[in-house]
Amino acid sequence: MFETLSDRLQSIIKTTAGQSKLNEDNISEALREVRRALLEADVSLKVVKAFISKIKDRANGEEVLKSLSPGQQLVKVVHEELVQLLGGSNKPLSTEGKPNIIMLFGLQGSGKTTSAAKLAIKLRKSGRNPLLIAADIYRPAAINQLQSLGKQINIPVFAMEENKDVKDIVEHGINYAKENGNNTVIVDTAGRLQVDTQLMAELMILDRFFMPVEKLLVIDSMTGQESVNVAETFNEQLGITGIILTKLDGDARGGAALSVTHATGKPIKLVGMGEKLDALEEFYPDRMAQRILGMGDVLTLIEKAQQNFDLASAKELEKKIRKKEFSLEDFMNIQKQMKSLGSLDQILGMLPIPGLSKENREQISHVGEKQLKRIEACVNSMTIKERKNPDILDGSRRRRISKGCGIPVDELNRFLKDFEKMKKMMKKMTDMTKNMKRGPGGAMKMPPGMRGKFPPF
């Protein structure tokens, strides 16, 4: 996601920030490089010109040239303008209406039907009771696809397979929602290979009769500049309320995300970050700008952790660590929860690690993922009794496990030795946290004898 643009911008800013004094000449050179980087990322020329013009006006003024730290000030200017380019602030979905009606539309292949199911899951997690309406009567198996997804995620799908009147289908679907207590209706409309008159006429009829509170255009982010033309056409005809960008995790350039908001004046509300049905995230322009500039995205990582980690289980785990009862079974449960946050590469990308290049991050994540798979193979070759009590692993058991997972005994021994060290370290850390006292303003105070020292791991 944005990897090409991110690497280029970080390199340009690093070079410029390293200069002791900024003037109009070296700022102009930096902006030329930024322009090239944006065009290579498939950002539309109109957007690039507007973006560069705004940065140039601010960078050539007193704000940067007379700043005590001009390099840092330039980074600040680029960050702020990038946030504005991406929409300024997060725009949540509206929940108005009884039922709340959300209409999804877009070209065929944009990921519209899958996005409808992902959105239904997201809304259910937030306390809504959604109903999916299958209103794509043209694409073969479109209704079956939505029904299959609905069954998979346990969310009802309203369909009238023999009916070819889209307005009638949606009307019956809304009545069904009212009768069955569904307070949000998601209408999956038909797509086309290209924008045509019949498609627009059908959508305009639905818009006029049912007045959906959200009209979300689904765009494949990997279509690049073509996505701008699509977004502008749909917005002119229907007055969209927001955009869902799909396949953003696979788009190394990011031109669509940086172009569609500027072109339409409408916000990106949601982004698809993977193939899993829970991989639909709210879009935060400030967080995305931080990712692009290599500043990490800790807030999103924390939110993901809060969603995927159970507080009661965490407290139980803390007790086990303090009592030295932390087992390999617990270790594997933590690994499963970590996987729910994303790949190691994605997690590293959200952490603000200075100087960590794309190549280094990929290398670390590749080696790390490979090592975790080997550890998982070792543990999976153990019995439940052995996982819960690794102390019983004598020589014969270790040889059996080694044969079962195909990993040498000496490597298994190293892992078990490291596991014991980790248990001791975790216990010291939890003990230290327990012994800390709150000082004025809620600050944590170190216990006597440990101030000014790191815990002796």
Give the helices and strands, then pairings:
Layout: H1 3-17, H2 24-40, H3 45-59, H4 62-65, H5 70-85, E1 100-105, H6 112-125, E2 130-135, H7 142-153, E3 157-158, H8 166-180, E4 184-189, H9 197-210, E5 214-220, H10 226-238, E6 242-246, H11 255-264, E7 268-272, E8 280-282, H12 285-292, H13 298-308, H14 311-322, H15 328-339, H16 344-350, H17 358-380, H18 384-388, H19 395-405, H20 409-435, E9 437-438, E10 444-445
Parallel strand pairs: 1-4, 1-5, 2-3, 2-4, 5-6, 6-7
Antiparallel strand pairs: 7-8, 9-10
List keywords for this structure.
457 residues; 10 strands; 57% helix; disordered C terminus; Rossmann fold; eight-stranded mixed sheet; single chain; two-stranded antiparallel ribbon; alpha/beta; 434 Repressor (Amino-terminal Domain); Four Helix Bundle (Hemerythrin (Met), subunit A)
Plain-language structure description:
It is a single chain. Helix content is 57%, strand content 10%. It is α/β, with parallel strands linked by helices. It has an eight-stranded mixed β-sheet with strand order 3-2-4-1-5-6-7-8, with helices on both faces. Helix 1 runs antiparallel to helix 2 (24-40), helix 2 packs antiparallel against helix 3 and helix 5 crosses helix 12. Residues 437-447 and 449-457 have low confidence and may be disordered.
